[in-house]
Write a structure and sequence with these properties.
The protein has 130 residues and is α+β, with helices and mostly antiparallel strands. The chain has one domain. It is built from seven helices and four strands, in the order H-E-E-H-E-H-H-E-H-H-H. The longest helix is centred in the middle third of the chain and has 13 residues.
Length: 130
């Protein structure tokens, strides 16, 4: 018989992290999922890469660190072949590292327009007011 501690560890993998979404730059929700643990960014990117194809971009609060996770995952070669560009949002430097913005900030990446990269936050802010 399994000890209670082992059962808790075994089922801890099913702890939910909540609703995760992917939105376009117009703030339309493209994907929504209720995923477990920290696999949701990889699952969302896997689907987005298969649908959107080459030269896509993804803004994520921790896009700089997540790019390493993506590169080391089974999706890494696909992301490279599709030329997927990870980015960070406009306020990343204030919370993390201003030097990091030079490589990852939307303002310094061609074809990103004048967005702040906070589409998901806009969607959740609207949903939280109702």
């Amino acid at each position: 018989m399994l000890a209670l501690r082992n059962v808790k560890k075994m089922f801890a993998v099913f702890d939910e992290s909540g609703i995760s979404i992917a939105v376009c730059w117009h703030c339309f929700v493209l994907l929504a999922c209720d995923m477990v643990q920290r696999q949701y960014p990889l699952a969302l990117l896997n689907h987005l890469m298969s649908v959107l194809g080459k030269n896509g971009g993804c803004t994520y609060d921790i896009g700089c660190a997540f790019a390493k996770t993506l590169a080391n995952s089974s999706l890494g070669s696909c992301a490279i072949s599709l030329n997927l560009q990870m980015m960070v949002g406009a306020f990343h430097g204030h919370a993390h590292n201003r030097h990091c913005q030079l490589d990852w900030h939307l303002m310094y990446i061609d074809s990103t327009g004048h967005k702040e990269g906070k589409g998901c936050e806009h969607v959740f802010a609207v949903e939280n007011t109702t």
